[in-house]
Recover the amino acids of this structure.
């Protein structure tokens, strides 16, 4: 049917508000599984410390005579002091007065309050990657930012790496903060089920009870497609459907949840060896210690615009690295 001349139709109207259902869609990954499974704690200084106490080795000959007159004095259990530096992360957003006043599509993304929320999400993603990065701690100086050591720089006991690789070091040999990163191996190999079981056993022998296997995308597929031993393929118990993915790995020393992490970085971004870490962890022994929790404050106005600073100061605390394990130098290939 014909349309009368000069009829105003939606096709001619360039100012109709788009039908975005009052929502914006972001494809950028927001999940931060590492921060979700570990604890939050507090720090009281830019260099924060925590004690680690070890029991003496088992004495299989601990038998004494009845009525012994002078029992031997045992060595006391003294604590080692581990430490890390806090670092500051921030985001700044500036929105013009006009942009904050007008009505726009997609829940007014241009408005100041929404921009602050988005920047806080970005900062949380930044933290996820940095906390899992192979970086050493640094005290910083005037004009140089402090650096909090990432998880790979703490793990020295239960480790599998390739030829040419080396463990990280501490500033005080057996205590202090991580002052040198782990050296990547000269090659990268497929993640092997035997390596996973070896790490789980080593952690268990040290007294740990790991419950999380954190992997990047390729190694998640590797676990699902190539691991056969005691692996159990199923989803949440509420959903009984069988899937081609291992969400729970049933080891000889307990069940572990396989957690894929989109934001997990390479072993050493500065290296030509583009390899990946697999973390086996007991999250009860890891925390993000906050000197300043996430805060915001207005900055000086610049003409017809408002600016806001969002920031926090935090550091990674690994209570006892023997409760963790790491398989370094893996490829991102499932097979």
């Amino acid at each position: 049917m014909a349309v009368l001349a000069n009829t105003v139709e939606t096709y001619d109207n360039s100012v109709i508000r788009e039908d975005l259902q009052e929502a914006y869609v972001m494809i950028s990954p927001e999940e931060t599984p590492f921060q979700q499974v570990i604890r939050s704690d507090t720090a009281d200084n830019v260099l924060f410390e925590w004690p680690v106490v070890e029991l003496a080795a088992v004495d299989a000959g601990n038998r004494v005579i009845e009525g012994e007159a002078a029992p031997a004095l045992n060595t006391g259990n003294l604590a080692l002091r581990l430490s890390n530096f806090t670092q500051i992360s921030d985001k700044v957003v500036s929105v013009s007065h006009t942009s904050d006043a007008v009505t726009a599509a997609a829940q007014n993304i241009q408005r100041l309050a929404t921009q602050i929320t988005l920047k806080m999400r970005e900062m949380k993603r930044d933290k996820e990657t940095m906390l899992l990065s192979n970086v050493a701690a640094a005290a910083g100086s005037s004009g140089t930012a402090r650096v909090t050591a990432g998880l790979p720089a703490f793990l020295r006991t239960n480790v599998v790496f390739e030829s040419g690789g080396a463990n990280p070091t501490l500033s005080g040999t057996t205590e202090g903060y991580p002052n040198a990163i782990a050296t990547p191996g000269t090659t990268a190999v497929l993640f092997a089920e035997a390596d996973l079981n070896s790490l789980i056993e080593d952690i268990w022998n040290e007294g740990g009870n790991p419950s999380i296997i954190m992997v990047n995308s390729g190694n998640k597929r590797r676990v699902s497609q190539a691991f056969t031993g005691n692996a159990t393929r199923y989803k949440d118990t509420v959903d009984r459907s069988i899937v081609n993915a291992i969400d729970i790995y049933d080891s000889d020393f307990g069940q572990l949840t396989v957690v894929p992490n989109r934001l997990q970085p390479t072993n050493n971004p500065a290296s030509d060896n583009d390899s990946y870490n697999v973390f086996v962890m007991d999250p009860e022994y890891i925390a993000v210690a906050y000197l300043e929790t996430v805060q915001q404050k207005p900055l000086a106005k610049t003409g017809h615009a408002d600016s806001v600073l969002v920031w926090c100061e935090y550091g990674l605390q690994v209570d006892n690295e023997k409760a963790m394990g790491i398989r370094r130098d893996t490829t991102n290939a499932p097979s």
